[in-house]
Amino acid sequence: MRTLHLDLDALRSFTTGIALGSFARAAVQLHRSTSAVSAQLKKLEQQAGAPLLVRHGRGLALTPTGEVLHGYARRLLALNDEAVAALDGAHWQGEVRLGLQAEFGEQLLPAVLGRFGRAHPRLQVEAQIARGAALVEGLAAGQFDLALALAWAGPALPASLSPQTLAEVPLCWIGPVVGGALAGTPAAPLPLAMLDAPCPMRSAAIAALDAAGVAWRVAFSSASLAGVWAAVEAGLGITLRTPLCLPRGLRVLDPQVHGLPAMPTVALHLHRASDSPAVDALATLVREAVATQVAALPRGRAPRGRAQASGSSER
Q1: Structure confidence at residue 209 (pLDDT)
Q2: 172-258: CATH topology
Q3: What PROSITE patterns has UniProt attached to this entry (predicted)?
Q4: Which of 80, 133, 151, 230 is most buried, judged by most C-beta within 10 A?
């Protein structure tokens, strides 16, 4: 086995160019010249012994070798950044308070807290799972430093809590992995499993079904998302959520196949109510974890429009 020492700076240029869809934009973001980035890519291809990129239409696509290197590059850079953060923040002390919506608790929270805890062993993270509106209200009351929540129409937030949009994610009809055709007629109304009202996503589902002339009934209602997931997996009904962090046993339903209305996208917001190096570090990990989840979403047809969002979050 040959011994190679991959250049982390070159790997960062490589992964940044793939993420931005342009190595010219990567050069700008990384404050390097385009020729320097090109030289780094050429060096990586020489080390790999095969092309990493191939022309695809007007852009570039990863070759099989490029896909392998891209996966390892992201892991190497994440470990490097974690090590640097650990050295910088090894002596930080205190507490950071994080709020998350329920769908992010099972998959995103352990990954974020694990990396943060290893890098900053003297810092304590207080995490709370709540509905989006409660998270924003908690921010305004000083209960959280950071909160990750889906945006939805509602009253405007204070200027100090203006959120950062991390992604636009589709609203999807969610059903069990095992299940037949869905019904939606007056004789057999479509069964829904929803969070208790008031819930903007519940209202959006009902409004869309009414507009499409699809008969429905609320077959299951729960105060917790875990209860809704269990009901959907058991076949009691379908629900409307985003495909982010979807539990096993559930799948995104094709609206055309099942006679369901197409739905818009909704913004995913990261709110912050305080500034400190520790909050900055945790916010960076949350953004990276969300980016990984969004990148894993299947690329399908463009959703219809966008759900209006004026700053309030989904309940």
Answers
A1: 95
A2: D-Maltodextrin-Binding Protein; domain 2 (3.40.190)
A3: HTH_LYSR (PS50931)
A4: 151
Does residue 113 carry a pLDDT above 60?
yes
Q: What is the mean pLDDT of residues 205-223?
A: 94
Q: For 103-185, where are the alpha helices, taking DSSP H only?
A: 108-119, 132-140
The alpha helices in the chain, defined as continuous H runs, are 8-20, 23-29, 34-48, 64-89, 108-119, 132-140, 200-212, 225-233, 255-258, 277-295
Class of domain 92-166+266-313: alpha beta
Per the rule left: phi > 0, alpha: psi between -120 and 50, beta: everything else, 18 is alpha
In angstroms and rounded to an integer, the radius of gyration of the C-alpha atoms of the chain is: 22
Distance CA 287, CA 153 (A): 23
CATH topology of 92-166+266-313 equal to that of 172-258?
A: yes
Structure tokens at 27: 């050069």
Q: Which helix (H) or strand (E) holds 165?
A: strand 164-170
* Measured distance CA(301)–CA(248) in Å, rounded: 23
CB-based burial, 97-117: b 16+ in 10 Å, e otherwise: bbbbbbbbbebbbeebeebbe
CATH fold label, 8-88? Arc Repressor Mutant, subunit A (1.10.10)
Does the structure show a pLDDT above 60 at 314?
Answer: no
Please identify which residue in the block is written with the tokens 């009414």. 210
Global pTM?
0.65
Cα(239)–Cα(229) distance, integer angstroms: 8
pLDDT in tens, 257-298: 888 999 999 898 888 887 787 888 888 888 888 888 888 777
B/e letters for 196-206, b = 16+ CB within 10 Å, e = fewer, are eeebbbbbbbb
